[in-house]
Amino acid sequence: MKLPEKTEGPWVTSFDPLTRQWTYTVTYNVSYAEDSPFFHALGHNKLLGSECQKCRYRYATPRTVCMYCGGPTDWFELPLEGRVHSWTTCHFSGEPYLSECPFHLGLIEFDRVDTLFMTRLVGIEQPRIGMPVRACFRRKKTWSVNDVYFVKKE
Amino acid sequence: MRPVYMLAGGITKFAKVHPDKDFRLMVKEAFDAALGDLDGRLTPADIEGSVISYFSDHFTCQLKAGAMVQDFVGLCPKPHVRIEGGGATGGLCFQSAVQAVASGRFNVCAAMGFETMSTVETWKGNDFIALASDTHFDYPLGGFYTGYYAMMAVRHMHEFGTTEEQMARVAVKNYGNAVHNPFAQHRHPATLEEVMNSAMIAYPCRRMTTCVMSDGAAAVILASEEAARKFCANPIRVAGIGSGSDAMRMADRPHARVPLLPHESESDYRDLKYPGVHSFRAGRMAAMEAYRQAGITDPRQDIQAWELHDAYASAELQQYEDIGLCKYGESGRFIEEGHPTIHGSNPVNPSGGLLACGHPVGATGLMQMVFCFWQCQQTIARHFGDPFCQIQNVRRAAGYSHAGTGTYVTISILEKP
């Protein structure tokens, strides 16, 4: 009995030291779990933040439990307009996003909200801190945080 | 807790790629270099346990690689644990080994770390590193740590008037120091103009103000006072360790008050909202804890050499402020006035730092402690074959290891006994 010979082997990039290519791919089933309402809301063109029911700290992101007092939070609708708190333009990135370079990342601040929201800034030639921006939503959902992005408020 | 001493340290040459050595052999080289420094007085048989650090199972293509190191260097069947904490992995490893000795569990403990980042191309490496940001909220936006740090730098520029040129000066300083460090990956001096004209990666972080991917390993031997006396002619005491943390998503960080160091007062920061995204609260917390343990009342006077985590030149500026070498907002002027240069009042990264030495993540924090150790021992000239990087009259030296826009920071202070 002999093992069948293989005609397709891995790509060898160097013979000595012997270096072979290895491709390993994974498909995960990742649940947004308790944060699911945030992503559902993006489908209704709404942004949800979390407000602590005990100390009233208002987060611009989903947090089930308050970082400061441990109190339970409840969802609230974030304003759809805010200002650029900080920004950058990425001319390089990780592999999945290389083809999108250059792109702007931004941190958005909202009135009467204690923390920020990280997002893509789109259609803005030169972002600046303090620039008024408004949320836009994708029509066809990706079921990711990319379903919302911010543009300059004219 | 009983006193802990560092007896020896070893580092491999950090390089873009070491295809001829796998991670086990790299660690063995660093481990042997450390033992070699003790003239054969300490053997693996004297080591009671180890802590091993590497950041990414993705880079290594191997889970439980720590167990393979333990077996390869001949420490089986002794106790061993693997430590991981993003960019601070090496610093956390060092502190975990310190605790193992301080608690009395081990009389002699090895801390060893490595990273093999050459297994993938740089853009895939950026992707792996970005998996150490929130994968539901931050990673999908563009998955890029340089981008996150860049946003912190832009806010620092806005709050305090910090400039791109000041960031470039950090890089010029560090590349200049590394010319004299044979362990460094990048050993060419750089001019301000070269750094300022290097390719933009994510504004304001440029190619030459951002560290590169590396392969490398580092090892440290720690011991009790009694064991230190037995095995080492020139041990250095671990005077204090401190660490801190912050929210994974930097968007979630507070805008509140500055926790003060012993030499600061409330009036210094009346209008500053802290940490926001301009500062590393974890670094400040680590400093407070480490200074308290080491009895530091003014770090500008009490610590003579620093190894900071300059994965980005902007982050080194931010760290001057977190550790109290200058007040918040003054780091730009601090570098302009030359204080952190090798001949300045507060030398920072005399080794060349991460920008020049490279950043094989699991080894980096340990590499910093090896450099600090040699600074305290006054043995840089022997180890580097060049006296340039030796700071004169070092009584204390400290290493600052840092992860994920400041989610973990460790500060470890060494002191001549």
From TrEMBL, chain A:
Q: InterPro entries annotated for this entry? A: ChsH2_C, ChsH2_Znr, NA-bd_OB-fold, Thioester_dehydratase-like
According to the entry, every stretch annotated as the ChsH2 rubredoxin-like zinc ribbon domain falls at: 40-72
Name of the featured protein: Uncharacterized protein
Positions of the ChsH2 C-terminal OB-fold domain? 75-138
Automatic annotation (TrEMBL), chain B:
**Protein EC:** 2.3.1.176
Under PROSITE patterns, the record lists: THIOLASE_2
**For the Thiolase N-terminal domain, which residue ranges apply?**
12-185
Please, which domain of life does this record's source organism belong to? Bacteria
An MF annotation (GO) of this entry: acetyl-CoA C-acyltransferase activity
Q: What keywords are annotated for this sequence in UniProt?
A: Acyltransferase, Lipid transport, Lipid-binding, Transferase, Transport
Mind telling me which InterPro entries this protein's record contains?
A: Thiolase, Thiolase-like, Thiolase_C_2, Thiolase_CS, Thiolase_N
**Residue ranges annotated for the Thiolase C-terminal domain, each copy included:** 280-415
Q: Which GO terms describe its biological process?
A: lipid transport
As recorded in UniProt, coiled-coil segments are: none
Q: What is this protein called?
A: propanoyl-CoA C-acyltransferase
Q: Which organism is it from?
A: Chthoniobacter flavus Ellin428
